[in-house]
Structure formats: structure tokens, C-alpha cells
Amino acid sequence: xxxxxxxxxxxxxxxxxxxxxxxxxxxxxxxxxxxxxxxxxxxxxxxxxxxxxxxxxxxxxxxxxxxxxxxxxxxxxxxxxxxxxxxxxxxxxxxxxxxxxxxxxxxxxxxxxxxxxxxxxxxxxxxxxxxxxxxxxxxxxxxxxxxxxxxxxxxxxxxxxxxxxxxxxxxxxxxxxxxxxxxxxxxxxxxxxxxxxxx
Length: 199
What we know:
By secondary structure, the protein is mainly α.
């Protein structure tokens, strides 16, 4: 008999249906699509100082407001567009965070041009393949590592902001650069099987 969702052992952090779905379907799964990587980078920056649940609740609104996280379009946003975003109740209306999305889109396009893809750039910080950790459920997972420190420093040097080491580590966890599911979690092994070297 196939276990139901409620029967499964998970990491302790998902506390509602939306977070559980995100945990079960996305978090920690190795991601190599540049547009999706850009989306996570912007959302992790938007989350700074807030809860991830807040961002998840507004995620679809962000996709609509930011043209599906198309970096080419976002890089061309003018003052009028920024002002309209600040009036949008469906997103986090923080002027600095909204402006940083435009700044980061431009830096993102520069990285694609220089390195071939954003994927190629960010995955170099873990040697091109997922780092597999083995945290028991009662162990506190770090919020930053030497790798996230290096990624943060590199991104800032290339013109990004809202990319501190803690934000970078949350990004690395989300896109599967590290597998930080607890060893008891049913997704730990699934994500491990899904990991593959960067194409």
C-alpha cells in the first residue's frame, strides 16, 4: 500500500500545505535551468528578514509581476515599472529589494555572456555536483558555509546585491547544490538519486 502524504517522514521545517508541497516537490532537487535559478535568487533575496512562507504565498504574484522572472525583461525595467511594482500588494513592496531585482537581472545577463550560463557560474562553487550532507533531524543545519561565503563574495564582485552568505546558502539548499534534507526525511534519498553532474 502506497503511503499517504501524512504518513511520510519529512524535515521538520514545512509547517503548512504550501510549504509541504514545496519541500516534497522542489526543495533540494538539483536545478540547472538558468531561468529557474534566477527566480530562486530573486525570491531568496526578497525573503531577507522575512519568513520563506511569506515568499511562497506570494510566489505566483511575483511570477506575474516580474514577467515570469525573465531576466532580459527585468533588466529593462524603468522607473515607471518600478513604481508600479511598489504599488503591487501581491509582492513584498520593499524599494531596495525591487530595485535589486533589476540590478541583479543585469548582472545575471553579464554572467551568462561571460560564462555561457548562470548555471555554469554558480555550480562551480560546489565543484559542479551536489554536496550531500547527512544531518539528523535534531541537528541544527548551518546557515552559511565556506562555499556560500565564496559565492556571495563572487556575486557581489560581479554587481549583485541581496546576496549575502546566508541568502546564498538558502539558494544553494533550494536548488540542490547541497542536499540538506535530514537523513530521516523521505526526500533525502530521492534527491540523492536525482543529483547529477552539471550538463
